[in-house]
Amino acid sequence: MELDTRLELLLSSGTISEEVVETVRKVIQRMNHHWKIPLTEENGSRLITHLSVALMRLKRHENIRAMEPGTYEEFKNTPVFPKAQEIADDIIAFTGIEIPESEREYLNANVCLILEDE
Protein backbone atom coordinates (compact mmCIF):
# COMPACT_ATOMS: atom_id res chain seq x y z
CA MET A 1 0.00 0.00 0.00
CA GLU A 2 1.30 3.47 -0.80
CA LEU A 3 0.94 6.45 1.51
CA ASP A 4 -1.63 8.08 -0.77
CA THR A 5 -3.67 4.88 -0.72
CA ARG A 6 -3.43 4.89 3.09
CA LEU A 7 -4.76 8.46 3.16
CA GLU A 8 -7.58 7.57 0.77
CA LEU A 9 -8.58 4.61 2.96
CA LEU A 10 -8.60 6.81 6.07
CA LEU A 11 -10.72 9.33 4.16
CA SER A 12 -13.19 6.82 2.73
CA SER A 13 -13.68 5.23 6.16
CA GLY A 14 -14.55 8.62 7.65
CA THR A 15 -11.52 8.56 9.93
CA ILE A 16 -10.11 11.79 8.48
CA SER A 17 -11.41 14.70 6.42
CA GLU A 18 -10.41 15.95 2.98
CA GLU A 19 -8.78 18.94 4.68
CA VAL A 20 -6.56 16.61 6.72
CA VAL A 21 -5.67 14.61 3.59
CA GLU A 22 -4.51 17.79 1.85
CA THR A 23 -2.50 18.93 4.89
CA VAL A 24 -0.80 15.55 5.25
CA ARG A 25 0.00 15.41 1.52
CA LYS A 26 1.74 18.76 1.89
CA VAL A 27 3.70 17.42 4.88
CA ILE A 28 4.80 14.42 2.78
CA GLN A 29 6.04 16.82 0.08
CA ARG A 30 7.78 18.96 2.71
CA MET A 31 9.59 15.93 4.12
CA ASN A 32 10.74 14.97 0.63
CA HIS A 33 11.77 18.37 -0.69
CA HIS A 34 12.85 20.35 2.37
CA TRP A 35 14.27 17.58 4.57
CA LYS A 36 15.30 15.24 1.72
CA ILE A 37 13.51 12.35 3.43
CA PRO A 38 11.29 10.57 0.92
CA LEU A 39 8.45 8.98 2.84
CA THR A 40 7.32 5.55 1.76
CA GLU A 41 4.81 3.10 3.16
CA GLU A 42 7.70 1.30 4.82
CA ASN A 43 9.27 4.25 6.61
CA GLY A 44 6.41 6.72 6.84
CA SER A 45 3.21 4.80 7.54
CA ARG A 46 3.37 5.30 11.33
CA LEU A 47 4.03 9.03 11.02
CA ILE A 48 1.39 9.62 8.37
CA THR A 49 -1.27 7.59 10.17
CA HIS A 50 -0.51 9.28 13.50
CA LEU A 51 -0.43 12.77 12.00
CA SER A 52 -3.69 12.21 10.12
CA VAL A 53 -5.55 10.91 13.15
CA ALA A 54 -3.96 13.54 15.43
CA LEU A 55 -5.13 16.36 13.17
CA MET A 56 -8.67 14.96 13.27
CA ARG A 57 -8.52 14.68 17.07
CA LEU A 58 -7.50 18.33 17.22
CA LYS A 59 -10.37 19.33 14.92
CA ARG A 60 -12.75 17.50 17.28
CA HIS A 61 -11.07 18.97 20.39
CA GLU A 62 -10.19 15.47 21.61
CA ASN A 63 -7.11 14.71 23.68
CA ILE A 64 -4.64 11.87 23.61
CA ARG A 65 -3.02 10.44 26.68
CA ALA A 66 0.62 11.42 26.98
CA MET A 67 3.26 8.87 26.13
CA GLU A 68 4.67 7.00 29.11
CA PRO A 69 7.51 9.16 30.48
CA GLY A 70 10.01 6.29 30.39
CA THR A 71 9.20 5.54 26.77
CA TYR A 72 9.58 9.16 25.72
CA GLU A 73 12.88 9.39 27.64
CA GLU A 74 14.18 6.49 25.55
CA PHE A 75 13.47 8.49 22.39
CA LYS A 76 15.03 11.62 23.89
CA ASN A 77 18.23 9.68 24.53
CA THR A 78 18.68 8.57 20.93
CA PRO A 79 21.29 10.28 18.75
CA VAL A 80 18.63 11.27 16.20
CA PHE A 81 16.32 12.99 18.68
CA PRO A 82 17.58 16.57 18.17
CA LYS A 83 17.05 16.34 14.41
CA ALA A 84 13.72 14.56 14.91
CA GLN A 85 12.57 17.35 17.18
CA GLU A 86 13.68 19.96 14.64
CA ILE A 87 11.73 18.18 11.89
CA ALA A 88 8.66 17.74 14.10
CA ASP A 89 8.77 21.43 15.04
CA ASP A 90 9.00 22.27 11.34
CA ILE A 91 6.00 20.07 10.56
CA ILE A 92 4.00 21.82 13.27
CA ALA A 93 5.03 25.28 12.03
CA PHE A 94 4.40 24.24 8.42
CA THR A 95 0.84 23.08 9.17
CA GLY A 96 0.14 26.19 11.25
CA ILE A 97 -1.83 24.07 13.70
CA GLU A 98 -1.44 24.35 17.47
CA ILE A 99 -0.44 20.87 18.64
CA PRO A 100 -0.46 19.97 22.36
CA GLU A 101 2.61 18.49 24.03
CA SER A 102 1.16 14.96 24.17
CA GLU A 103 0.74 14.93 20.37
CA ARG A 104 4.19 16.51 19.92
CA GLU A 105 5.76 13.63 21.84
CA TYR A 106 4.21 11.07 19.50
CA LEU A 107 5.20 13.16 16.49
CA ASN A 108 8.79 13.39 17.75
CA ALA A 109 8.85 9.64 18.37
CA ASN A 110 7.53 8.82 14.90
CA VAL A 111 10.11 11.06 13.25
CA CYS A 112 12.83 9.43 15.40
CA LEU A 113 11.81 6.03 14.07
CA ILE A 114 12.09 7.29 10.48
CA LEU A 115 15.54 8.77 11.11
CA GLU A 116 16.76 5.61 12.85
CA ASP A 117 15.75 3.60 9.77
CA GLU A 118 17.74 5.80 7.36
UniProtKB/TrEMBL annotation:
<dbReference type="Pfam" id="PF00874">
    <property type="entry name" value="PRD"/>
</dbReference>
<dbReference type="GO" id="GO:0006355">
    <property type="term" value="P:regulation of DNA-templated transcription"/>
</dbReference>
<dbReference type="InterPro" id="IPR011608">
    <property type="entry name" value="PRD"/>
</dbReference>
<feature type="domain" description="PRD">
    <location>
        <begin position="15"/>
        <end position="118"/>
    </location>
</feature>
<dbReference type="InterPro" id="IPR036634">
    <property type="entry name" value="PRD_sf"/>
</dbReference>
<protein>
    <submittedName>
        <fullName>PRD domain-containing protein</fullName>
    </submittedName>
</protein>
